[in-house]
Amino acid sequence: MQGNMMDVQLTVPTILERIRTQYAGREVVSLLVAGRDEQGNPVPHKHRTTYGQVADRARRLAGGLLGLGLTKGDRVATLAVNSFRHLEAYLGVPSAGLVLHTVNIRLHPEQIAWILNHAEDRVLLIENVFAAMIPAIKAACPHLEHILVLGPTPQPIPLPGVRDYDTFVQESEALTRYPDLDERDAAAMCYTSGTTGNPKGVVYTHRSTVLHSLASAPKDGLNVGEADTVLPIVPMFHVNAWGLPYTCAMYGAKQVYAGVFADGRSVATLLQDEAVTITAGVPTIWMGLLAELDRAAQAGQPYVLGGLERLIVGGSAAPEAMIRAFQTRHGLSLLQAWGMTETHPLGTASGVPYGVDASSDEAFTLRAKQGRTVPLIELDLLDDQGQRLPHDGKTMGRLIIRGPWVASSYFKGEGQSNFFDLDGQGWFDTGDIATLDERGYMHIQDRAKDLIKSGGEWISSVDLENAIMAHPAVNLCAVIAMDDPKWDERPLAVVTPKPGQSVTHDELISFIAPRFAKWWLPDATVLTDSIPIGATGKILKRELRDQYRSYSSTQGLVTPAAPDRSE
Ligand code: ADP
């Protein structure tokens, strides 16, 4: 017997209609580039609008794009920073039945062209600050018929098919009747960063977008409601800014966008001036903010951030030392979340479980893990033979995931080996190595490709990095595998010290030794001025490995003690 409930399709226009009809007065604030100072640095200008205006312009954008002859499923790319205009595209493009393709602006121009061609984008929305790239993009991307420039340019760009976005939106008729959409139709797409092989396209459906927004907002998730003011520092080209533009719109939260201004001082000022309650970004952003908050406090002029309830951190592991530093020095709470492009991205969030004292060491240990699943997401662990492993908090295995906002394949059917059946159900292999404990807390140990395999055993580079980053003289640390004739691979710590400070290998090892078996401890430490960071704010371990793979124990800061395997 079937139930009798309506089969209403879960689609993005329902979100657009909510901001238009219920939250029209709620604000959207964006830092735009007003010009350049003498050093060539961008000067900010604060732009204010409302959800009502965003909805009107999103519907005009939708109408205008269909007026260009685009039809259902056509791709509209963005090369844009976080701002109200990008938000209009988030809502307007899928509401027209088109697919919003957000492209990472930090990629190499050749990779950008490769991705635009692979997705066969017909229209590109490009930020004015990147307008210089337009001729090269046009030449490299034959599918691209129209380019709309977001924000004013000093002169009009005299190329066929290139026009000003604001004028286009103003002159277009608003779409008032949305096309019939199936909730399984494509709404948006993102490419993985291609750390292994070419980037792969992940295509989100309307349904997955709506369900992800519904599931990420509740209290034990990101905790977003109408009374909130949310500043997503995470770029809108990186997994839809973790879905926050949609989640905030669905629940009516005010949105604040920092554009190109993501340094510690700009972020702290914006958090204070706009009374932000929730913000989100990768650990490197929060390290910049922490340094700025410390500086201001020491100068006797602390920022006033009383309403800031949570800083969401994800993208790579948040060191426990950082979580503690924010809490103890500034009374600010970091919530760690985990996910990937293939999971929309929210998979887990790491709150303190019921019954555990939030100020206890146990609470901090749990918050430094990646946390428990949000509803409807399932996780499991497999060994190399595909057998399920115990959830005992100790056994490491390949992390697999399934759920209604997890990819079931890549665009054009690539990378099929990541998707597989287990006991008749579809799963996705995350490529992460993790543990799961009895309460469901997931703890990432490594990306499979970054794991250090020493004498047939696994060493977690993430655990070592987090422990080393708790040392007061350490700014950033990456632990990588170096080749070893006896053990195959051994850990090498690459460390950037804090300005004006230094540290020796022996000091670091004695600092972390109480927490690890002896054979886990790095054999050597390299001090360096900088560690390469990639387009999504993560350490480029592949570059470091290329540089230091055959690092010889006679160089630099070294203790080449043979690992003791007895523990
Ligand atoms: P990529 O890093 O391959 O570009 P994503 O941006 O989709 O792809 O990142 C997904 C990966 O980032 C995850 O598989 C995981 O390894 C890592 N990651 C994300 N959040 C966290 C976190 N909170 N802690 C540790 N690792 C994380």
UniProtKB/TrEMBL annotation:
AMP-binding enzyme C-terminal domain segment(s): 464-538
AMP-dependent synthetase/ligase domain sequence ranges: 46-411
Keywords: Ligase
A single GO molecular function term of this UniProt record: ligase activity, forming carbon-sulfur bonds
Domain of life: Bacteria
E.C. code: 6.2.1.-
InterPro entries noted in UniProt: AMP-bd_C, AMP-bd_C_sf, AMP-binding_CS, AMP-dep_synth/lig_dom, ANL_N_sf, ATP-dep_AMP-bd_enzyme
Family classification: Belongs to the ATP-dependent AMP-binding enzyme family.
PANTHER family, alphabetized: LONG-CHAIN-FATTY-ACID--COA LIGASE, MEDIUM-CHAIN-FATTY-ACID--COA LIGASE
Protein name, as recorded: Fatty-acyl-CoA synthase
Organism: Deinococcus soli (ex Cha et al. 2016)
Lineage: Bacteria, Thermotogati, Deinococcota, Deinococci, Deinococcales
